[in-house]
């Protein structure tokens, strides 16, 4: 039945069917009234009123029929027009006016698409379905039938809907992109890429799908022409020159990859491993990416460059990350048909000679900037793929890997900076750190490990160029360091890890001798000292000292036992070991460690500390003298002891030893006095200092005379250690003590420098007066005693001499004052009579006159108005004195003497005159009034010699 409806009512009816999604009725209506319901009008009605939620397959057939102009009209069917029949025409016209049908063309309509209503409709419809219903997944079935209809439809489907659909529905539905279709299309490339890939490789389990994402999201997205720069409108395209930036869209993808390298390297590595570049696209068979040869070449080149740049950008310092970097380099070599890379493990094993392949312009000093800037620029000399850049990067990855594996974590870029900046200090620091790490972290007892480590150290410098055969400077990350430096550091590591045999075979036995003898010696010595300095225990059979001992003996053909270095070290070890027997704290609370001895400014003073901290240790004088000698022989007293291989001359050494011995004896004397052991102090004075020659110009000795003087000034107290071999006679002991003190003072006089003589003489005089008084008192007491005619028993005054006096008369000289043994003998033999004592004092004095001969001569010269150059008046010569003794007199004294003499003869310098004055004063006030009788004046008792 033919319906007769006005055009307005027809339109309203069509709208009605559209709203009801009654496609069958609409089809019939449209078929029957095609003059009014024309294609464009129908498309606008559907666009505006067909529900967006309607499945595409419900109306795609209609669109196809409409497009072809073949809407079917089954005459058997009728349409229901009841919805519009009752309307008045006016009402119908009014309603049509209010329909507000959407236009097919909008401002966004792509230029060139505007002549095709179906394409325009499909695009608008797609946007609306997405926006109003969110049914992105309905769009393929809507658009697919029209793929060949228009490139705009195809682009929309393949380049936008496909990626978004995969991204939001298939790949990462949990985190969909929240943009509408049209909004997404408007986004700048960078934002779009980052959105598409925002979930790519985010979780560890996503990593295997990074390639899928790139292929499935980015691949289709790049199909859009807009992602490619329009070629210049020139028919004759000059190939190659225009290539840079051909595909801004690709550039964004590549930038994304390099950014990932810095942030999350595993994503970048997965990308390069799983994706072959922009040409590697999965378009779901909805299209093909058609690239020209130049475009293809361009994107492949750019992709390879991005892969190299990514290797530089990896910021994690793990072996795994570096393995990833290596795989990227290998991939680049592969896709660009460059020199292929061996597997990483074999590269690390063979350490390939890469230096030859690295052209000089790569290691140019202009290039460090490219490590950080413009990674994807075609002017970047480091990332532009070539055999040279690949070899350079391979070398850097291997270098960083070697460092990292050893325990010095390094990035590719860090290795690149070392190689390119060529800063010697930086390289040195890194090399030292590296060798240190080798030394600390490896399987130390495995010689193979060490051999390999050495090869690595040397390779890092040269990257495999043959040292001898090339004039070209080395290019590696240690390029500025001398091979000797590396060898020395390595040898130190070997030795401190007790790899002595290997050290011997590498540095002593090999014919090429990597280190010359002198450097080798210095290195061994330095390492031995490092072990020494690290020691905490001064016992040489343990820890650091033991190691020091082993190291110094490790290369016997280089440092023989008899070598001065070996001897010096032996002395050092002996000296240190000797200290282990004592309690010794130098700084508050800190126990002594060997290094303290080695660096001490005044090592001999440590003996003073021992004496302070170890009661009675002063009795071990000989041990301390040996110790002092060792210290000198160990070089500890030389001023530039930091230089291990400079030595004292034998003469200097003898002088240092002599100085040390004098000082140590003096220290022991002081310590003995401090502990009130006068007897020991006295015995040291007479035995040690008494035999000393006066100090010479080369021997500084301000200690001996002071010690002798201290002993001479010592006064007995209750605390004084009693001589074990004497009786209890206090008077006897007092006199004996005074004699001993005088003897000490006499020693002091003999060895002291002239300016100090006055002080000693004063002490001498006082002691002498005391002795005088003591003798007198004794005499009086004896007289009183004789007068009483009493027996010896019960005598007051402490003379309880009950020892038989049988041998008393025939005793030998009781007065060999310096020899305590003979004194003991004397004491044990017989009681000492007062007369004997007096005589003894005189004799002691007489005998010691000779010791004062220099002084005496001076005095004689002064008092007697100059007795001539020889000076010495013939006085009673003491035993052991002879004429040659005058030549043994101290230089000071000889100077004094000759000075005074020569000044008398002709007048000399002021200085000598002053000395003479001092001497005169000493002689006048001291010698004449006090001990004058000692110097030759007739004594109170006649000297009796036997
Ligand atoms: C790179 O090296 C390979 C293999 O040695 C060689 O075949 C190729 O020609 C080289 N490429 C260039 C650009 O020099
Ligand atoms: C230093 O001493 C410590 C322990 O005292 C030891 O573990 C370390 O290996 C020593 N270092 C060297 C270089 O000898
Ligand atoms: C040194 O060490 C050895 C071995 O540990 C030990 O037998 C010896 O007594 C120590 N010597 C001293 C003086 O401590
Ligand atoms: C005093 O004379 C004795 C005997 O000759 C000698 O052993 C001693 O060293 C002398 N003392 C001094 C201080 O010269
Ligand atoms: C003197 O010696 C006698 C006999 O050995 C002894 O009994 C007496 O106590 C002694 N006197 C003194 C003061 O030591």
TrEMBL record:
GO terms for cellular component: endoplasmic reticulum. GO terms for biological process: protein transport; retrograde vesicle-mediated transport, Golgi to endoplasmic reticulum. Its main location: endoplasmic reticulum. Residues 11-785 form the Sec39 domain. Residues 907-920 have a biased composition (Basic and acidic residues). It comes from the Eukaryota. Residues 805-820, 896-905 have a biased composition (Low complexity). Residues 1-21 form the signal peptide. Pfam families: Sec39. Residues 862-871 have a biased composition (Gly residues). It is found in: Endoplasmic reticulum. Residues 775-831, 862-921 are annotated as: Disordered. Keywords: Endoplasmic reticulum, Protein transport, Signal, Transport. This is Sec39 domain-containing protein.
């Amino acid at each position: 039945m033919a319906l007769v409806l006005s055009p307005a009512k027809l339109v309203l009816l069509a709208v009605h069917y559209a709203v009801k999604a009654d496609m069958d009725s609409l089809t019939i209506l449209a078929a029957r009234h095609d003059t009014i319901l024309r294609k464009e009008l129908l498309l606008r009605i559907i666009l505006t009123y067909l529900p967006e939620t309607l499945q595409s397959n419900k109306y795609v057939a209609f669109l196809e029929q409409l497009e072809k102009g073949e809407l079917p009209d089954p005459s058997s069917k009728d349409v229901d027009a009841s919805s519009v029949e009752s309307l008045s025409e006016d009402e119908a016209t009014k309603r049509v006016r209010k329909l507000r049908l959407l236009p097919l063309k909008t401002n966004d309509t792509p230029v060139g698409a505007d002549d095709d209503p179906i394409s325009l409709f499909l695009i608008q419809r797609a946007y609306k379905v997405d926006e109003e219903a969110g049914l992105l997944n309905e769009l393929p079935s809507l658009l697919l039938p029209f793929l060949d209809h228009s490139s705009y439809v195809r682009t929309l489907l393949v380049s936008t809907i496909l990626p978004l659909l995969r991204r939001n529905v298939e790949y990462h539905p949990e985190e969909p992109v929240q943009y509408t279709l049209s909004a997404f299309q408007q986004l700048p490339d960078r934002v779009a890429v980052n959105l598409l890939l925002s979930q790519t490789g985010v979780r560890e389990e996503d990593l295997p799908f990074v390639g899928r994402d790139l292929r499935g999201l980015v691949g289709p997205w790049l199909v859009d022409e807009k992602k490619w720069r329009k070629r210049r409108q020139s028919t004759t395209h000059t190939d190659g020159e225009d290539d840079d930036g051909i595909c801004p869209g690709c550039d964004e993808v590549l930038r994304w990859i390099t950014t990932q390298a810095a942030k999350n390297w595993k994503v970048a590595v997965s990308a390069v491993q799983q994706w072959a570049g922009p040409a590697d696209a999965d378009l779901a068979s909805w299209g093909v990416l058609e690239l020209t040869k130049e475009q293809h070449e361009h994107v492949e080149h750019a992709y390879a460059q991005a892969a190299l740049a990514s290797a530089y950008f990896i910021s994690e310092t793990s072996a795994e990350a570096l393995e990833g970097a290596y795989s990227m380099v290998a991939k680049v070599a592969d896709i660009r048909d460059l020199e292929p890379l061996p597997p990483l493990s074999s590269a690390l094993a063979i350490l390939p000679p890469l230096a030859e392949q690295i052209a000089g312009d790569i290691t140019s000093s202009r290039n460090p900037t490219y490590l950080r800037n413009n990674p994807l620029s075609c002017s970047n000399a480091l990332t532009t793929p070539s055999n040279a850049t690949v070899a350079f990067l391979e070398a850097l990855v291997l270098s960083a890997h070697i460092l990292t594996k050893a325990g010095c974590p390094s990035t590719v870029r860090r290795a690149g900076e070392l190689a390119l900046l060529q800063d010697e200090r930086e390289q040195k620091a890194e090399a030292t750190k590296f060798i240190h790490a080798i030394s600390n972290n490896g399987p130390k007892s495995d010689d193979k490990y060490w051999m390999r480590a050495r090869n690595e150290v040397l390779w890092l410098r040269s990257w495999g160029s043959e040292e001898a055969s090339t004039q070209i400077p080395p290019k590696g990350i240690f390029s500025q360091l001398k091979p000797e430096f590396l060898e020395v550091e390595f040898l130190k590591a070997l030795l401190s890890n007790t790899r002595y045999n290997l050290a011997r075979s590498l540095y002593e036995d090999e014919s090429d001798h990597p280190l010359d003898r002198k450097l080798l010696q210095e290195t061994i010595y330095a390492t031995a000292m490092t072990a020494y300095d690290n020691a905490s225990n001064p016992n040489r059979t343990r820890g650091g000292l033991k190691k020091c001992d082993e190291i110094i003996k490790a290369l016997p053909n280089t440092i023989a036992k008899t070598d001065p270095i070996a001897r010096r070290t032996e002395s050092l070890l002996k000296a240190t070991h000797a200290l282990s027997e004592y309690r010794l704290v130098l700084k508050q609370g800190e126990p002594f460690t060997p290094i303290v001895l080695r660096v001490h400014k005044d090592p001999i003073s440590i003996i003073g500390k021992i004496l302070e901290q170890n009661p009675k240790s002063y009795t071990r004088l000989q041990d301390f003298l040996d110790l002092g000698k060792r210290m000198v022989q160990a070089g500890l007293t030389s001023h530039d002891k930091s230089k291990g291989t400079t030595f004292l001359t034998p003469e200097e050494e003898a002088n240092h030893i002599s100085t040390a011995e004098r000082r140590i004896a003096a220290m022991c004397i002081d310590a003995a006095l401090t502990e009130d052991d006068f007897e020991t102090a006295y015995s040291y004075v007479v035995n040690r200092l008494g035999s000393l020659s006066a100090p010479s110009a080369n021997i500084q000795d301000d200690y001996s005379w002071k010690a002798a003087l201290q002993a001479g000034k010592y006064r007995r107290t209750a605390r004084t250690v009693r001589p074990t071999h004497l009786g209890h006679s206090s008077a006897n002991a007092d006199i004996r003590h005074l004699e001993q003190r005088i003897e000490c003072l006499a020693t002091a006089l003999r060895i002291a420098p002239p300016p100090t003589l006055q002080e000693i003489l004063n002490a001498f005089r006082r002691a002498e007066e005391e002795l005088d008084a003591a003798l007198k008192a004794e005499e009086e007491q004896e007289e009183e005693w004789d007068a009483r005619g009493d027996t010896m028993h019960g005598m007051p005054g402490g003379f309880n001499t009950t020892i038989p006096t049988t041998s008393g008369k025939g005793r030998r000289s009781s007065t060999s004052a310096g020899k305590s043994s003979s004194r003991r003998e004397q004491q044990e033999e017989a009681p000492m009579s007062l007369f004997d004592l007096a005589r003894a004092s005189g004799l002691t004095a007489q005998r010691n006159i000779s010791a004062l001969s220099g002084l005496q001569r001076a005095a004689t010269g002064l008092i007697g108005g100059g007795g001539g150059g020889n000076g010495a008046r013939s006085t009673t010569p003491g035993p052991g004195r002879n004429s040659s003794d005058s030549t043994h007199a101290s230089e000071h004294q000889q100077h004094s003497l000759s000075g005074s003499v020569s000044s008398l003869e002709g007048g000399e310098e002021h200085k000598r005159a002053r000395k003479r004055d001092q001497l005169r004063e000493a002689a006048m006030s001291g010698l004449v009034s006090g001990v004058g009788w000692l110097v030759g004046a007739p004594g109170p008792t006649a000297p009796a010699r036997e």
